[in-house]
Design a protein that fits this description.
The chain is an alpha+beta fold. It has three domains: 2-45 and 120-188 and 280-360, FAD/NAD(P)-binding domain (3-Layer(bba) Sandwich), CATH 3.50.50.60; 196-276, Alpha-Beta Plaits; 421-506, Glutaredoxin (3-Layer(aba) Sandwich). It is built from 13 helices and 23 strands. Strands 1, 2, 7, 8, 9, 10, 18 and 19 form an eight-stranded mixed beta sheet that branches. Strands 13-14-15-12-16 form a five-stranded antiparallel beta sheet. The longest helix has 25 residues, at 336-360. It is globular and about 75 Å long. It starts with a strand and ends in a 10-residue tail after the last helix. Bound molecules: flavin-adenine dinucleotide (FAD). Residues 7-13, 30-33, 48-49, 144-146, 173-175, 179, 199, 275, 294-295, 302, 305-309, 311 line the site of flavin-adenine dinucleotide.
């Protein structure tokens, strides 16, 4: 029996498998597709934007360079380059000017080897994660479609054909049409679609009839990407298109002509898929021994390029908590903080995509909203606000502290000897940073040594802190002032890492 069975070897399932493998759990991943390669995962259809927060997750596990290499990125900014971002994204197709991001208003944005997002594709992301999973001893079994689940107080069993796979925990990372979600009895609530979206790789007889970039028209939106023949469309048909069938060339051409107001001709369609803006989540991400992560836990339109980033955030948040539960040292309720922390972030992404769909509608109301948004992103404050959202830097969990860093993704704090927080996080343990002159946290921090690393010394930039406790997912769990209080540190360590292994008095 495995500690954890993960259903789905997409990017989220694989990232989670790596987190659990790193923490010493035995993990089996069951994947329906026999072959990891697919034209839907390679450029241009598989192109995905990873936010800075996601890139940082790869960096913290020592996978930044493999990711950049697999993604063909050779001009990524260096670790000490100061901060104006190179790209800032868009809202509903309205592009942000990166020069308008007010970096001074982002005090926690310290220089880091992973300060920028990366344009990659699913094939590259999955290849990097599969290789890491393999080195961590994770088994990925392909050609296995899970079709039934049974659980009791002790175990959960997934069935695929004649085969049964037992584990102590099961995580459904099986995508937007998740079988696990239905089989384990999760609800799924939200809003019905207003539009059908299409992605098309085609030979276009007269491409000059289409303008490059995002085009909001009186009848919808089309996007002509720089990749030859690759276009996207939004048709506000109330989600009427029957998505059980592949869209035909005739249908796609009719939609494109309608939206673009041209007589453009698609002479051949090579690949095409459709999506909607249906936006849904279960009310909890856990039912007994079954959990959900990634698209299985939230569906929404791809507007705003958030789904993968959201799913990787789920995996990072869940991995160490589930591992602590498997190993038996998790404090009471730790696993339930997964839903508590991640569900509101999922709900926010659903709203972010709803807002963009609403602003792109071909009607006077949406056009009025577009005018307002254009005015707002014309200002530094407006651009900075949207940038913080799309880059992931606005995410903050409510951990019950008013200290502004607590609950946030930790900046890449650096000791005077050059050691970076990101480097300390490679082995998946939490990190206790102690900048106090008398190494005040030394004894207490050593009490949790197998779960938390202790690093002490003066900082290059301590952001006014004397100490910080960073969880394995990179979130600041506690922060001390220049004269850090050992007792409050110990309370926070116990809250997240359970009882200490060794009493502090032994040091
Ligand atoms: C056009 C488009 C552009 C996008 N752009 C971005 C972007 O720029 N940035 C971003 O962050 N997000 C983007 N997204 C969203 C992103 O692609 C998804 O959120 C992400 O791929 C979800 O990963 P996942 O691992 O949760 O699910 P998936 O990638 O769907 O993986 C699920 C896996 O589970 C397997 N599976 C399913 N059912 C079973 C079963 N019963 N048994 C066993 N295995 C099963 C599947 O074969 C699959 O391998 C985009 C989406 C689209 C459609």
């Amino acid at each position: 029996m495995h500690d954890v069975v993960i259903v789905g070897a997409g990017p989220v399932g694989l990232f989670l498998a790596c987190e659990l493998g790193l923490a010493g759990c035995s993990v089996l991943v069951l994947e329906r597709e026999p072959d990891p390669r697919s034209p839907w995962k390679a450029d241009p259809l598989g192109m995905r934007g990873l936010s800075a927060a996601s890139v940082e997750a790869f960096y913290r596990r020592g996978m930044l360079h493999p990711l950049l290499k697999a993604s063909g990125v050779d001009d990524y900014p260096g670790a000490d380059e100061p901060a104006p971002p190179r790209g800032a994204g868009h809202f509903a197709g309205m592009m942000l000017d990166p020069a308008k991001v007010d970096v001074a208003a982002l005090p926690f944005r310290l220089p880091s080897p992973a300060l920028e997002g990366v344009m990659t594709n699913l094939e590259a992301v999955e290849a990097v994660l599969s290789e890491r999973a393999f080195t961590l001893g994770v088994e990925v079994r392909r050609g296995v479609t899970v079709s039934a689940i049974a659980q009791d107080d002790e175990i959960v069993v997934a069935r695929a054909g004649e085969h049964e796979y037992a584990a102590r925990w099961l995580v459904g990372c099986d995508g937007g049409r998740s079988a696990v979600r239905g089989l384990a009895g999760f609800d799924f609530v939200g809003t019905e679609p207003q539009l059908t979206g299409y992605l098309v790789l085609a030979t276009i007889a007269d491409p000059e009839k289409l303008r490059p970039g995002f085009n909001l028209t009186p009848t919808g939106m089309y996007l002509r990407t720089p990749a030859e023949g690759y276009i996207g469309m939004l048709d506000f048909d109330g989600g009427a298109f029957d998505r059980s069938q592949r869209p035909t060339r005739e249908h796609l051409q009719a939609v494109l002509r309608h939206i673009s107001g041209t007589d453009v001709t698609l002479s051949d369609v090579h690949l095409a898929s459709s999506f909607t803006d249906r936006a849904m989540q279960p009310t909890t991400y856990r039912q007994g021994r079954v959990l959900l992560a990634g698209d299985a836990a939230h569906i929404h339109s791809p507007l705003g390029a958030q789904g993968l980033n959201l799913g990787l955030g789920d995996a990072m948040n869940l991995g160490w908590k589930l591992a602590a539960t498997v190993h038996g040292y998790a404090p009471d309720g730790l696993l339930d903080t997964y839903t508590r922390e991640r569900h509101p972030i999922g709900a926010w992404v659903l709203d972010w995509t709803r807002a963009q769909a609403a602003a792109m509608k071909p009607d006077p109301h949406a056009q009025a909203i577009q005018g307002v948004v254009r005015d707002l992103i014309g200002t530094r404050d407006g651009t900075t606000y949207v940038f913080e959202k799309v880059s992931g830097s606005s995410i903050r969990y409510d951990l019950g502290s008013e200290q502004p860093l607590v609950g946030r993704n930790a900046p890449d704090l650096r000791l005077a000897d050059g050691t970076r927080l990101g480097d300390l996080m490679r082995d998946g343990r939490g990190v206790a940073l102690d900048f106090s002159t008398d190494r005040r946290l030394h004894g207490p921090a050593m009490g949790w040594e197998s779960r938390m690393q202790y690093a002490a010394g003066p900082a290059r930039n301590d952001l006014g802190l004397g100490a910080a406790l960073v969880r394995p997912d990179g979130v600041v769990a506690w922060a001390g002032d220049r004269d850090p209080d050992r007792e409050s540190f110990e309370r926070a360590a116990g809250q997240w890492f359970g009882s200490p292994e060794i009493s502090a008095t032994e040091f």
